[in-house]
Write a structure and sequence with these properties.
heterodimer, A: alpha+beta, Butyryl-CoA Dehydrogenase, subunit A, domain 2, Butyryl-CoA Dehydrogenase, subunit A, domain 3, 3 domains, 4-stranded mixed β-sheet, 4-stranded antiparallel β-sheet, 12 helices, B: alpha+beta, Butyryl-Coa Dehydrogenase, subunit A, domain 1, 48% helix, binds flavin-adenine dinucleotide
C-alpha cells in the first residue's frame, strides 16, 4: 500500500488579507454577472477578465519573478483559486495555462521557452489548451496516434486531437504525441508547444449536449514545428504528461464546479426551510468542508515538491460525487423545473448544472480510471 | 510529565533521532486478523502538525494495543468482562491523562495529539473507556478538581438529558437521569455536568453515588442508564471555564468519536485490502477483479474523508472547541463509517459475517459510534442552520472560515 495520508495543510497566516482583497475585487467585477453565467464556473470564458487577474498578480502566482510570476505560496494561490470558483468567476481563458501548462514549462522547459511563455501567461495574455485525447485514445492515453516526425530543423506533425477545450480561443497547445516506435507504449512519446496559428492546424467545433461550443477537434496536417517546440527531452512525454495530470486533478475546481448552485439553493430555501432541507444543505456543507481540507492538504504537498497523484485522485473522485449530488439534491428540495434560459434563477442554474454534471466524472480522468489508480495505490494491481 | 509514558515522550522530545522499529508487527491471519496498523500504515498521519510526540504516541500506544487486545480479549470484553489487567497497563502508561496539562499532573498532549491516541485506540477496537477517561480528566483538570484514579466517564452524553444541581447544607445535590452513558458501570469517577445560575459546573461523583442500569451498544460496549441522586461536597464541585459549555463538552465527545471512527475505518480498509489480496476465487485473488478494486477505491475515499474529518475535529478542539468544524467532521465521518462497513462486509463475504472473524469488532463499533454524540442528521442540521442563517452570500465565507 502506498502512502494515502493527507498531512495538515501548512499554516498560511497572511492569506486573510489576500482573501479580502480578492473578494473585494470580485464583488466589483462580477456585480453584474448573473448566476446563470456564474454557474459556468471554470468553463466560463472571458479574456478581459483573465487579463485583469493577470494585472492583479493572480496568475502564475507561485512562479519566479524572473518569469513574470509572483513567488507566492501554493496556499496563497489556493486562496485565490477557491475565491474565484466560489464566486463563479469566468476563469477558463487562463485556467489551463496557470494550472498545468505554465508549471510544465517551468519544470522542463528551456530558458528560451520560459522567457517566451511564462510572462505572457502570468499577464493573462497567453492561453493554452490540452492536447492529450484522440478519437482512439481517451482513458488509454498511451494509445495516442498523432505523430511528430523529425525533419530538418524541426518536426512534422500529423494526427487528430479531440475534446480540446477552448482550442478555438487558445494561443497554444501542449501536444502529446508519438515520436518513437509505435510498439513502445510509453517510451516513444514527447510533448510539444504548438502555436495554433501554424499552417496545417484546423480547429473544428464540437457542440456539447446543450449545444454550446467549448470543445473541439484539432487536426494536424503536415504541421511543421520548429525544433524549439519540443518541451522536455524527446521520449519523456509519458512522465511529463503524468506529472501534468497531478496538477490537473488536484485543484479546488474538482469539487466546486457546482458551488454557485448551492448558493442559489440556499437563496431559494429562504430564511425558514424545512428540517429536511436544512439537513440536506448542511450535509453538502459538511462534505465541502472536509473535501476542502483534503484539497488544501494536496496543495501543501505540491508546494513541498511531493507528488500527491494518489491523494489528488482520491479528492477528484470524491469531489465529482459531491458536484454531481448538488443538482440532484437541489431539485428535491425546491420544486422547480430545470430550464437553461428560465427567468427563474434557480431553474436556470439547475439546468446548467444538470446538463454539465456528466462531464465532472469524465474530464481529467474518468471515475473508473481514478479508482483504478487508487486501487493500484492500495496494492491491488 | 509524571507518567512513564510522559517520560518516554520527554526523552524523545529531547533526543533525536529516535529509535524506530518497534517490532510489533503481527502476522495477518484468520486467528489474529486485526493487522498491525503501526507507523507504516498508509493512514499514519504526518505533516507539520504531527510532531515527533504524536509519532511516539502512535508507536507506544500501537505496541501496547497490539499486545493487549488480541481477538481473545475482544471476545472477552464483548461477553461483558472488564479487562482490568489491560486497563492497568493503559493507566501505567498515563494514557488517561493524555489531555491533562503537565502542570496539572497530566501528560500534556495537545488536543490534536490526544485525538491521535483515540484514533489509534479506535483502530484496535480497544474495549475500554480510554477516550471517556481522557475527556473526564480533561474536564476535571479544567475545573480544578482532583483527577480520576481509575476509569472515568462524563454524563450526560445525550442532548436531551439534563442533570440538575441544587445547593444543600454544606454541599450540592446532583440529580437526574443520564441515558447511554459510555462505561457508566465501570467508572470509578463520574463527571456530572450541570448548569447552575448560568454556568456549567463539573461535579465529581464516585461510582457508589450512582444507580446503574446496564445497556450496551452494538459492539457490546457499556452504554448505561445512570440514575443520579448524589450529594457532593463543596470540594467536589467547580465551575468549568469558558469554552466548556454543555454544547462544547458534547462536541468534544463528538470530536473524539470522530477520531475513533477514523482509526477504525483506516483499519477496516487495511483488513479488507489484505483480504482481497489473499482470498482466491476463479483462480486469482478477488482483488484482481475490477469490481472489487472499484469498491475498495470508494472505501479508500471514505477513509481519507474520515481521516480528514478527524484532523478537522481535532484542530477545532485544539482551538477552543469550535462547534462548526466538529459538526462537519462528525457528520462526514459518520457517513464514512456506514459506507466503509457495508463495503468491508461485501468484500469479506460470509467469513466476515461470522463471530469468529474479527471484522465485526470494528464494524459494530462503526455502526454504534456514528450515532453517539450526534448522528449525521444532528450535525448536518447544525451546519445547515448556520448556512441558512448566513444566507446565500454568506455560505462561502462560512465554509472558507472552517
Ligand atoms: C467536457 C470535457 C472536456 C474535455 N477537455 C479535454 C481537453 O481539453 N483535452 C483533452 O485532451 N481531453 C479532454 N477531454 C477528454 C477526456 O480527457 C476524456 O473524455 C477522458 O479521458 C475519457 O476518455 P473517453 O471519453 O474516450 O472515454 P473512454 O476512455 O472510451 O471511456 C468510456 C468509459 O469506459 C470506461 N473505461 C475505459 N477504460 C477503462 C478501464 N481500463 N477500466 C474500467 N473502465 C474503463 C471509462 O471510465 C468510461 O466510463 C474532455 C472531456 C470532456 C467531457
Amino acid at each position: 500500500m502506498q502512502d494515502f495520508s493527507f498531512p495538515a495543510p501548512p499554516a498560511s497566516p497572511d492569506t486573510e488579507s489576500l482573501r479580502a482583497e480578492v473578494r473585494e475585487f470580485l464583488g466589483t467585477e462580477l456585480a453584474s454577472r448573473p448566476a446563470s453565467e456564474r454557474i459556468k464556473s471554470w468553463s466560463g470564458f472571458d479574456a478581459d477578465f483573465s487579463r485583469k487577474l493577470g494585472e492583479r498578480g493572480w496568475i502564475g502566482m507561485t512562479w519566479p519573478k524572473a518569469y513574470g510570476g509572483h513567488e507566492r505560496s501554493a496556499l496563497e494561490r489556493y486562496v485565490v483559486l477557491e475565491e474565484l470558483l466560489a464566486a463563479g468567476a469566468p476563469v477558463a481563458a487562463h485556467w489551463i495555462a496557470d494550472r498545468q501548462s505554465g508549471p510544465l514549462i517551468l519544470k522542463v522547459g528551456t530558458e528560451e521557452q520560459k522567457r517566451a511563455f511564462l510572462p505572457r501567461i502570468a499577464a493573462g495574455e497567453c492561453f493554452f489548451c490540452i492536447g492529450m485525447s484522440e478519437p482512439d485514445s481517451g482513458s488509454d492515453l498511451a494509445a495516442v496516434r498523432t505523430r511528430a516526425v523529425p525533419i530538418e530543423g524541426g518536426w512534422r506533425v500529423n494526427g487528430t486531437k479531440l475534446w480540446t477545450t477552448y482550442a478555438h480561443h487558445a494561443h497554444c497547445m501542449i501536444l502529446y504525441c508519438r515520436t518513437g516506435a509505435a510498439e513502445e507504449r510509453h517510451g516513444g512519446t514527447s510533448q510539444f508547444l504548438v502555436d495554433l496559428t501554424l499552417p496545417g492546424v484546423t480547429i473544428r467545433p464540437i457542440a456539447d449536449l446543450s449545444g454550446e461550443r467549448h470543445f473541439n477537434e484539432v487536426v494536424f496536417e503536415d504541421v511543421v514545428l520548429p525544433a524549439s517546440a519540443l518541451i522536455g527531452p524527446e521520449g519523456n512525454g509519458w512522465n511529463q504528461v503524468m506529472s501534468e495530470l497531478a496538477y490537473e486533478r488536484s485543484g479546488p475546481e474538482r469539487f466546486l464546479s457546482t458551488f454557485v448552485l448551492l448558493v442559489e439553493l440556499i437563496r431559494a430555501l429562504g430564511a425558514s426551510p424545512s428540517d429536511q432541507a436544512t439537513d440536506a444543505a448542511g450535509r453538502l456543507g459538511a462534505q465541502l468542508v472536509v473535501l476542502r481540507r483534503l484539497s488544501r492538504s494536496v496543495a501543501g504537498m505540491l508546494q513541498k515538491g511531493e507528488n500527491p497523484a494518489l491523494q489528488a485522485a482520491v479528492v477528484k473522485d470524491m469531489g465529482a460525487i459531491v458536484e454531481q449530488e448538488i443538482p440532484e439534491i437541489a431539485r428535491q428540495l425546491v420544486a422547480t423545473e430545470p430550464a437553461l434560459r428560465s427567468p427563474d434563477v434557480l431553474s436556470a442554474v439547475l439546468g446548467y448544472a444538470i446538463l454539465n454534471a456528466p462531464a465532472f466524472s469524465l474530464r481529467g480522468g474518468t471515475r473508473e480510471i481514478l479508482r483504478g489508480i487508487i486501487a493500484r495505490g492500495l496494492g491491488l494491481r | 510529565m509524571h507518567s512513564p509514558f510522559g517520560q518516554v515522550l520527554k526523552a524523545i522530545r529531547e533526543n533525536e533521532p529516535r529509535a524506530i522499529p518497534l517490532g510489533y508487527r503481527t502476522e495477518r491471519s484468520f486467528q489474529n486478523p486485526l493487522p498491525d496498523n503501526g507507523p507504516e500504515s498508509p493512514f499514519t498521519p504526518r505533516g507539520p502538525k504531527v510532531s515527533e510526540t504524536s509519532q511516539i504516541v502512535w508507536d507506544t500506544a500501537a505496541r501496547l494495543f497490539t499486545e493487549q487486545f488480541t481477538p481473545q480479549e475482544l471476545h472477552r470484553a464483548e461477553a461483558g468482562e472488564w479487562l482490568g489487567a489491560q486497563w492497568d497497563r493503559i493507566e501505567e502508561l498515563g494514557l488517561p491523562l493524555a489531555l491533562v496539562p503537565e502542570e496539572d499532573g497530566g501528560v500534556g498532549l495537545d488536543a490534536i495529539e490526544g485525538a491521535m491516541l483515540v484514533r489509534i485506540a479506535g483502530s484496535f477496537a480497544v474495549p475500554l473507556p480510554l477516550p471517556e477517561t481522557m475527556l473526564a480528566n480533561r474536564l476535571l483538570a479544567a475545573a480544578g478538581l482532583p483527577l480520576a484514579a481509575g476509569p472515568a466517564t462524563v454524563a450526560p452524553v445525550r442532548l436531551d438529558d439534563r442533570l440538575t444541581l441544587a445547593r444543600t447544607e454544606g454541599g450540592w445535590r446532583l440529580s437526574g437521569v443520564a441515558h447511554r452513558v459510555p462505561w457508566g458501570r465501570s467508572a470509578a469517577v463520574l463527571v456530572g455536568l450541570a448548569e447552575h445560575e448560568g454556568r456549567v459546573l463539573a461535579v465529581r461523583l464516585t461510582g457508589a453515588q450512582v444507580r446503574t442500569e446496564p445497556g450496551v451498544n452494538l459492539a457490546c460496549e457499556p452504554r448505561d442508564t445512570l440514575r443520579i441522586e448524589g450529594v457532593a461536597a463543596e470540594s467536589a464541585v467547580a465551575p468549568l471555564p469558558d469554552g466548556f459549555g454543555l454544547a462544547e463538552c458534547f462536541a468534544m465527545g463528538a470530536a473524539l468519536r470522530t477520531a475513533a471512527i477514523a482509526g477504525a475505518v483506516g483499519r477496516v480498509l487495511e483488513m479488507t485490502v489484505g483480504y482481497a489480496n489473499d482470498r482466491v476465487q476463479f483462480g486469482r485473488p478477488i482483488g484482481k477483479f475490477q469490481a472489487i478494486q472499484q469498491s475498495l477505491a470508494i472505501m479508500a475515499g471514505h477513509a481519507a474523508a474520515a481521516a480528514g474529518s478527524a484532523d478537522v475535529a481535532a484542530e477545532a478542539m485544539h482551538d477552543g472547541t469550535v462547534l462548526l468544524p466538529i459538526a462537519a467532521a462528525k457528520a462526514r465521518a459518520g457517513e464514512a463509517a456506514g459506507s466503509v462497513a457495508t463495503i468491508a462486509h461485501q468484500v469479506h463475504g460470509a467469513i466476515g459475517f461470522t463471530h469468529e472473524h474479527s471484522l465485526h469488532f470494528l464494524t459494530k463499533r462503526l455502526w454504534s459510534w456514528r450515532d453517539e454524540f450526534g448522528n449525521e442528521a444532528h450535525w448536518n442540521r447544525v451546519i445547515g442552520r448556520r448556512m441558512i442563517a448566513a444566507g446565500a452570500d454568506g455560505v462561502w465565507p462560512l465554509i472558507a472560515a472552517l
